[in-house]
Amino acid sequence: MLQAAKKNKFKATAIIVCLLCVLSLCVAVGAAFINTNRDTRPVPDVAKSSLKYSNAYEELCTIGDYKYLFYEDRDILAIENTKTGYVWKTGVDVPFLNEAWEARDIITDAKESGDNTELKDYAKEKNMTVAEVKEMANCVDSSFNSSQYTAFANSLVTVEYFEGSGDSMTTQRASSAPEKKSQGESQLTKGSSENEWVLDCKFNIDDEELGVKVHMTLGENGKVNFKVPYEEITGCISKIKCIEIAPFLGTSGGILKYYDKDADDFVKTEVKELTPGYVLVPDGSGSLIRFNENKTKFSEYNSKVYGTDPSTESNYYSSLDDVVPLKNPTMPVFGISHGDGTQAAFVAYADQGDEYMSINAAPASTTDGEIAYTYAYASFQYNAEYFQVINQAGDSYRKVQDKPNKFDIDLTYQFLEGDGSDGYKADYTGMAKAYRQHLIDEGILTEKSVDEKNIPIRIDFLMSDSKKGVFSTQEVEVTSASDVKNILNQLNKDGIENINTGLIGWQRGGETLSKPNSTKFSSSVGKKNEFKSLMSEFAKKGIDISFSREFSSINETMVNYYGTAAKHINSQYLSVDKSEVLPKNVPVTEYGYATPAKTAQWITDLYEDLGDLSGSFTIDGASNILLSHYKSDDNKTTVQNTVKLYQDAISKIQKNGTKTNLVNPNKYLWKYTDRYLQSPVGTSQYVYETDTVPFLQMVLNGTMEVYAPYANFSFYAQTDMLRMIDYNISPSFVLTQKPSYLLGSTTSSDYYSTEFGQYEELVNTIYNTVNTPLSQVINYNWDSRTVYSWDGKELTSASKDANGNETDGGIIANQYSKDGDVKTIIINYTSDEIQVNGTSVAANSAAVVEGGVK
């Protein structure tokens, strides 16, 4: 359910009206397009590859167009594209401060004595040339003011671990290439299979040893795979918080300090030339974080893949407020692009360990003492810290889970180069296509063709919910089965035929109070035979009507918690307080979560009882909430178990020939998804996120139907319609027959505008606007997405104009192809009429042109 606070509705409406007035005035006076982080900016500038590798790097192998080298002292893997000469490194490759001073002293002694013997011996010991030793002694990196951070920036593998206990517990880092051997060491050896190498890491943690073996497989097509088998982690694994692999691969930024003879210190600063490019993170539809020299320090983007597990959060209780919630990554993937999108990039994705994976991206900061690099990496959590409750008063203490999470890491970096004419383009579109193909190869996604001339539309119906009555709860009916029939018939008369729909709140007690697997129909909305007749009648018309249900969220009025509700790792029932976002007089404000086993059973039960009535089945909650359950130390359901439970339950539905409609599903359910509902079209809007892109939609394109958020709720402006066309997603609405204010005292009060009588015209307008261009590329491959600007005469994809000023963008060209036929959809977000291939595209509109942009 939506979670907007009723008390802010009128305020929000007033703000929206004011903004619309301002925007309308801007358009009226012909204001230029203003690119925000909700849009996609023109490509970055061309990058100059400044990375090189010293004589200290030893070649491991050359496979195809890629040469792989390793610097043993710093645990850095270098990847060189021999065709383009572009070099990537898994670390920053900087000396420790003491190492630079050591080299400085040896050089000084050689100058004063006139004898280079010691200098040459030192260079030989370091596997360097004398010139490389002199370079090392000449400058250091000011970002790393401690040896721990320098080791982190260089090393291939870093472990975060817990030190101390209780309130004094802290998190520390240990890296595979530390400054001193006493802190640990590593050794690279040849693996058992072809092109496999094993980095055997030994970490000394609080006088205990931790062993981690990382298996590297170097591929001929620019793929580097890292595996960390759980069974090969030895020693004090109970202290590990997480393992991080290649955190500085693809980094950009840095501030150097050069040696000053007069000061006899490293004091002369020089900002390293910034590599143009960006980090891609799967925030919402997809977000870019461009490399910038930020004057302000920003908090690091840190997002748990598939969302945080409520059962291993610090506390067993939480509360919702009216702040817009952050968006969870639905897939374990990120990437970095260098240059203008035709040069070099990589996309990284996990095939194992993703349930425990977080994606991290740290924006650079040029503030003194801060890291002046932008970098991104994956981390994998083995132990969580939480508050253990010790009595009924709620007293607690901090501790770490008793047994670590047991899983293997399987992380692949796939390197991309070129403009896409031969392989995958070196930008976010190439990353999406490469990851899409990987998922197809793994059997997770399957390309599908449809026998339709028009795109689909999703029309959900909210039927009933419960409110407080004088003596008990009272059901509020806003849409009956006969109302659904009348509305669908009217939409058919309006010319909309490709419709599928979900019925929400059809059970007795509504969505709030009915047990998820209940087959007791609400008498006020219709009896079972009425629904059976409704579904049968419209199935003959090609309109699919399904029962919709949220299966994860529960309350004590709905079910008995004993044996049903999920428990936190501290043995308490999970609790979510929604009183701040719900009206004061709703029947229930305290919620919990069903155990994963119970959720899976409810899905199976409800489908077995009612699945034969409909051609599809709609699932919410279980599709996007991943949690564990701790009944006891020896009786728990891990998130891996939960994934398997949900996959088994939903696959049975699909195998029976029933389509599955899942609300914002996570990647592990994509194999079993026919319709992706409520796909995000934006990001969490972190201030350092510079662009929004349809990465998710490009990955899923052609493998399932993908739908936009409900258009009722502030997603109906002209720009929003263009966004649906741009992202190639179908519109969706949630409707009622009666006015939505009747729901004001129910937990469905956040569905604040749903009455069909008010939306019929808008449904038709949005559908026809979006369908006109997208219907022309049904079953076409989405090949590319390019940002253009209009200079008054022609389109330009350059990031700067002839005077060196940044271009605005605002025009998107999405190219599609099928059997040699090429079509391009032009989305013009600007207030200018433009010309493309002889076709006029009006301001704030979209059009299809034959062929590519010329």
Structure, described:
The chain is of the alpha+beta class and 854 residues long. It contains 14 helices and 50 strands. A hairpin with a 5-residue loop joins strand 8 (184-190) and strand 9 (196-205). The radius of gyration is 29 Å and the shape is globular.
Element layout with pairings:
Blueprint: H1 9-28, E1 58-63, E2 66-71, E3 76-81, E4 87-89, H2 97-113, H3 117-125, H4 130-138, E5 139-141, H5 147-154, E6 157-163, E7 170-175, E8 184-190, E9 196-205, E10 208-218, E11 223-228, E12 234-235, E13 240-245, E14 252-253, E15 255-260, E16 265-271, E17 277-281, E18 287-290, E19 301-304, E20 317-319, E21 333-338, E22 344-352, E23 357-362, E24 373-381, E25 385-389, E26 396-400, E27 409-417, H6 428-441, E28 457-462, E29 464-468, E30 473-477, H7 481-493, E31 499-504, H8 510-513, H9 528-539, E32 544-550, E33 553-554, E34 575-577, E35 590-593, H10 596-610, E36 616-620, E37 629-632, E38 635-637, H11 639-655, E39 659-663, E40 675-677, E41 691-692, H12 695-700, E42 705-710, H13 718-727, E43 730-735, H14 756-774, E44 781-790, E45 795-796, E46 811-818, E47 821-828, E48 834-836, E49 839-841, E50 845-850
Helix pairs in contact: 2-3, 2-4, 7-9, 10-11, 13-14
Pfam families: DUF5696 (PF18952)
Signal peptide: 1-31
Region (Disordered): 168-192
